[in-house]
Amino acid sequence: MSGFVSSLDALPVLGILFQFVGYVVANSSFMSQTTVAVAVPIAFAALCGVMCERSGVVNIGLEGIMLTAAFVGWVVGAAAVGLLGAGTPFAIYGVTPPLMIGLVAAILAGMAVSLLHAWLAITLRVDQIISGTIINIGAVGITGYMYTLLAPQSPIGAGEFAAFVVPKQIEDLPLVGWLLNAVLGQGPIGMAMIVLVILLQIMLFRSRWGLRTRAVGEHPRAAETVGIDVIRLRYRNVVLSGALAALGGAWLTMEHGSSFGPSMTAGRGFIGLAAMIVGRWTPLGALGAALLFASATGFSTSLQISPPSGDLGHLMAYVPGEFWEALPYIITIVILAGLIGRSVAPAADGQPYERESAS
Amino acid sequence: MSGSQRRDSSPRSSGPNSFIRAIDLRPIAEPLFAILLALVVGAIGITLFSGLVPGHANFDIGLPIAAYSALIEGAAAYPNGWTSTLVYATPLILAGLGIALGFKAGLFNIGGRGQFLMGAVGSMAVATAIGPSAGPWITIPLALLVGGLFGAAAGFVPGFLKATSGAHEVVTTIMLNYIFVFATYWAISGPLKLPNAHQPITGDVSNLNASLPIVFGRDLNAGILLALVAVPIIWFLLYRTTLGFEIRAAGANPDAARYGGMRTNRLIVLTMSIAGFMSGLAGSTTLLGVVHQMAPGYDTTVGFDAITVALLGRSNPVGVLFAGVLLGAMRAGSQSMQIQAGVPAELVDALQAIILVFLVINVLRRWLRGRSAGPAAELSLGVETGHASEGAL
Known about the structure:
- The structure holds two protein chains of two kinds.
- Chain A is an all-alpha fold.
- Helices cover 72% and strands 0% of the residues of chain A.
- Chain A has a domain at 40-263.
- Chain A has helices at 2-10, 12-26, 28-54, 62-84, 97-123, 128-150, 168-171, 177-184, 188-206, 208-218, 220-225, 230-256, 268-278, 283-305, 310-318, 321-336.
- In chain A, α4 runs parallel beside α6 (128-150), α5 packs antiparallel against α6 and α14 (283-305) runs antiparallel to α16 (321-336).
- Chain B is mainly α.
- Chain B has a single domain, classed as ABC transporter involved in vitamin B12 uptake, BtuC (Orthogonal Bundle).
- Chain B is built from 14 helices and two strands, in the order αααααααββααααααα.
- Chain B has a two-stranded antiparallel sheet with strand order 1-2.
- In chain B, a hairpin with a 3-residue loop joins β1 (214-216) and β2 (220-221).
- Chains A and B meet through α6, α13 and α16 of A and α6, α7, α12 and α14 of B.
């Protein structure tokens, strides 16, 4: 046995691989919690993207929608605290009236920004990339402007939703305990993400709405021929999808933390876009990609907190921290380049629709 | 694609074949109208939240006037205002020309940010490698060239990916932006780090004999000359060379261009590389002429501002020059606006978005008044969407 183990040293790659697996298992509890948390806003952005692009509207304004919702949720929550007082947190998820008001405001704000995108992209048939770019620039400008004005008063937001405390019995279950702990031990927005992913996956592929949405995204002319109102369906999907990205934004200022910072989305909307592509425009795939991307963050955070020893530690010392941050984008480029399977967008994605002989 | 229908109403056919005739009234009037409208909306926005500005009452109508006059003073006062405007305009013009070139070819290059950063990294690498012993006459041209080439490499990648696998340049340039942002952070904390510094920071190019000379006033560096020279060069490239003709043809109708015997894949790679070169130069001139040194978190807004510049300038090199100066003026004036009137400088970003909204709507309203059918929103912006319909997005 000892001979076998020492021969592993002669194969450093294999040895490091074993160490890697050992390290991941040893730190799985911490890593899985970090990964699920990091994945929440990414998955929400990706869901928004899936819903838009499945119905044929490209949305690169995800980042702007999230940022706006994050800001509005925070500001309205703070205003509600001023009017109603902080309130006593409810036993489950620490819900207070100001938090709920802030959350609703964030969702409405996200839907309003999406409505702007829908109006520009669907009604006016403006280039959808330009429309998304406008939303991203505008969101940074307007939230930054308002934040700079409000910052000197340092308003205190409505606080944050509390995470669900997983019972010890569940956490201690063999094999799946850490996983259940990571999934269930979240706040309401994080939990809603998991529910919405499953719901959307079923809706998109098993419901009348889903069939129509996919038809409109693949071949709007044919969809119109069988009586589907393409424009209306696209409007409805784009505006509703804004609520999804908004939940991702609200998570930042109302569940993950309780304060706002300029440009605090920091590219999460764009990683969400990447997760949508890597997940092949399906809700479950998008969640998988979001978890994959987030696991890079989970792993690198874990490396900083408890650095591995031995060969793995030596190897990891050579990998700059920036690499882990860039990894989601590198994976996306590799997949887009067709090196690992192809990811194909809905056929009518990004193409404005015009009714035939509109009179 | 309704290329033939577009052509008759496009500003191109009304004569960018000559430098003078390119300046007809409509492409100037529409952006100016959009800007004026946006300023009005901005004034309403300032007034609505004036109560939050220290020393002002709610709904103070005087505040937008004070803000805009501070903005204009900061951007146009003699001499420090307008030199500051031109300093801000330099990278906007250079990068804007690159984005505009992409638009002409039907390519939407969102990668200005990454290409800009790679340009700055390339120049910093040259300045660090050569050191202060060589004269500025050697270091500066070499640093500019390498910066441009780094940017070109950053532009080459999405072009190559599009040509070989059809990966849409919008998505790849977004992803590459972040890859290059982190590559820049890594370069600042690794190979380019000042050896004995306590924090990740690069050397100062003015200590390395590599800072661009000041040509006027307090801060106007020689980069503006580069930008002013680049405008006619890109114009000549677009309207007087075979390559330029092919770029415009491929942008208007890629299928026709391909049937006409043009190698459109080669054109995509070339256009993206040239666009990257221009954004890289923007990064080089900013590093060598303005910031001189890269600190942790070094980043830029030029990449996205340049998209606004290219759209406002209708992808015409002369238009880009004016749009670049205009946006540069807004950036330059925003600082004094914040200091003197207390109105946050972020107003400029909000104004940019509002300007763009009015720009794209205005075009459409004109189209609704009765023109030929077809997706008309792009045409007057000079954005060709020929290639955009290809490849996965």
